[in-house]
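Anyone up for a design puzzle?
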């Protein structure tokens, strides 16, 4: 295939020897969708044309809530445009683009829009003023005359992903299909959480080279920042196979004050590099989007062919059966939820018991080792209290390690069995949808569930949670009381700290797995409901379409079927075109 030019409806925007994307593929797909009145696909094509077709790309800031995504974007544009705060704030997607005039357009879900002053963004963007998006905002489009944006960069702020704010998480996840490049914002404290790992997992499948930032480093010592960075690099490599990620330790807070600290200059350099090489990002995205839209279009065309080929009554009957199944599945899913929740509780209790047994068995040993270590403290000349707390870590780590060794195989087995059973039951209902639609498309959508559901336990133990606490009294005492006496006074506190360290880390492991399973279950269930709803809508509109054709007689049906088959082969060849190049 010869290098071609990506073209938008409006004309060509760039020529690049490396671009080997089918010429105007999105434009062709849009024409087909228009012809078939598939408005949701037309809208998607238009959005892509408006973005990639004009030589721009979405740089999306993703991460757990409160990591400083909005603050970071503010720092990049050099002013406080996006609301930030100490409680979860962002509830809506905001896209910041170049514009001569400073303005914000509120794009509503019903297609309408209104223009507001930048000072009023908080009324629509925040959880406080627009909880769970009661104002039905699709996204906010903010225009600013910034030179950075003028180069074709769209900065996208997203609601934080978390298990606590489901509606926000959903908003962000739905936006993932419009992601061209990503900055994953991670916090320094605690390093990489469950929710953040989820974000990385999502992102990895979408963009070639996500950028990672560890934000708020102004809050930590250089030493801790280095530890967090090493730890994050380790996880990215071990768990996601990301060998040399672009990772920057930064402070958005200092960035917005114009202070260049830590890796801020390097981070800006990276963004500059992305913008300079935007054709690569755009090319990748264009290809992925073309494939995704082609596949959706093929499914819809098949649905129309089916509706035209069979008696209308058959399609209507299918819709009725599917509606009934939807009702039934609501109950089924709820019951499945209860049943599996109590199963999950049972597993937790079993593991809790094992943990107690483990502690009882090792109590004397742990206490003995502590006494020995403490005796050595008395001969140590270090004056810092923190030193003694930290000196307990290897001991705690040893016992946490022992517990892990003992329990890991068992936990893996419990949860594997658990998730396999859940998925089996769940797939049964998915197959019933397939029976009605007479294809495998619905259960295929849930094929990958197993990987989704079953957490690999090793994951969680890279992170040995550490925390040093010294009571205010001890800090003050530290100034006046001689070291040895002070240590004796601290003995109980040190011992409690060590026990807590062992206990909390042992329990955390099970807590994390449980949390992850609950999250997966919720996501699978919500996804299932959404998809059935969507399927029903599509089938109803296929009925409408088929009724119209059928009212015009046999010849029209025959002609339309021929047309559809021809269109289908064009879409297939567009899809093949993108496959050849990938
Ligand atoms: N010390 C420090 N605080 C920061 C930094 N960046 C952000 N913050 C603070 O962290 C809090 C959260 O910042 P936001 O920018 O609202 O975080 P967010 O990720 O957009 O949060 P959500 O929108 O709720 O997902 C605010 O109080 C910020 O002032 C930083 O670099 N250093
Ligand atoms: Mg925010």
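Challenge accepted. My sequence:
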């Amino acid at each position: 295939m010869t290098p071609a030019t990506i073209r938008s409806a409006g004309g060509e925007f760039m020529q690049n020897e490396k671009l080997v994307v089918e010429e105007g593929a999105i434009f062709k797909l849009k024409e087909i969708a228009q012809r078939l009145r598939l408005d949701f696909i037309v809208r998607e094509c238009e959005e892509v044309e408006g973005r990639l077709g004009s030589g721009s790309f979405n740089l999306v800031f993703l991460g757990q809530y409160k990591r400083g995504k909005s603050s970071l974007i503010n720092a990049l544009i050099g002013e406080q445009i996006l609301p930030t705060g100490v409680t979860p704030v962002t509830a809506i997607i905001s896209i910041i683009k170049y514009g001569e005039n400073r303005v914000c357009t509120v794009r509503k879900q019903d297609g309408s829009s209104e223009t507001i002053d930048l000072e009023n963004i908080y009324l629509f963007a925040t959880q406080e003023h627009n909880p769970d998006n009661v104002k039905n905002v699709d996204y906010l489009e903010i225009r600013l005359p910034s030179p950075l944006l003028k180069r074709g960069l769209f900065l996208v702020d997203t609601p934080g992903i978390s298990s606590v704010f489901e509606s926000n998480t959903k908003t962000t996840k739905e936006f993932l299909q419009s992601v061209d490049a990503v900055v994953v914002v991670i916090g320094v404290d605690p390093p990489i959480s469950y929710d953040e790992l989820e974000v990385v997992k999502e992102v990895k499948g979408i963009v070639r080279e996500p950028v990672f930032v560890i934000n708020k480093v102004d809050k930590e010592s250089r030493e801790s920042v280095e530890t967090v960075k090493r730890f994050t690099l380790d996880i990215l490599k071990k768990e996601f196979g990301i060998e040399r990620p672009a990772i920057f330790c930064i402070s958005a807070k200092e960035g917005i004050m114009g202070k260049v600290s830590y890796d801020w200059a390097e981070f800006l350099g990276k963004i500059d590099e992305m913008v300079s090489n935007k054709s690569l990002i755009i090319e990748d995205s264009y290809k992925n989007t073309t494939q995704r839209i082609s596949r959706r279009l093929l499914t819809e065309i098949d649905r129309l062919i089916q509706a035209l080929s069979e008696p209308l009554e058959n399609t209507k009957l299918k819709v009725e059966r599917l509606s009934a199944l939807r009702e039934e599945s609501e109950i089924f899913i709820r019951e499945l939820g209860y049943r599996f929740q109590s199963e999950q509780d049972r597993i937790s209790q079993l593991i809790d018991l094992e943990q107690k047994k483990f502690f009882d068995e090792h109590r004397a040993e742990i206490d003995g080792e502590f006494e020995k270590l403490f005796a050595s403290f008395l001969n140590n000349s270090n004056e810092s209290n923190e030193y003694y707390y930290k000196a307990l870590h290897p001991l705690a780590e040893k016992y946490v390690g022992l517990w892990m060794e003992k329990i890991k195989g068992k936990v893996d087995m419990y949860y594997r069995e658990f998730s396999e059973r859940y998925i089996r039951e769940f797939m049964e209902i998915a197959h019933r949808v397939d029976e009605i639609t007479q294809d495998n498309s619905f259960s295929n959508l849930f094929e990958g569930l197993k990987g989704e559901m079953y957490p690999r336990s090793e994951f969680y133990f890279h992170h040995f949670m550490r925390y040093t606490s010294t009571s205010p009294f001890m800090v003050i005492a530290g100034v006046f009381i001689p070291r040895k006496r002070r240590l004796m006074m601290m003995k109980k506190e040190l011992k409690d700290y060590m026990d807590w360290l062992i206990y909390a880390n042992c329990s955390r492991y099970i807590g994390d797995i449980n949390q992850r399973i609950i999250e997966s279950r919720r996501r699978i269930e919500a996804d299932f409901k959404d998809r059935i709803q969507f399927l029903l809508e599509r089938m109803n509109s296929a009925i409408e379409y088929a009724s119209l054709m059928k009212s015009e007689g046999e010849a029209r049906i025959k002609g339309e079927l021929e047309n559809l088959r021809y269109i289908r082969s064009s879409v297939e060849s567009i899809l093949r075109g993108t496959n050849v190049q990938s």
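A detail worth pointing out: Residues 69-70, 89-90, 157 surround magnesium ion (ligand 2) (CB under 6 Å).
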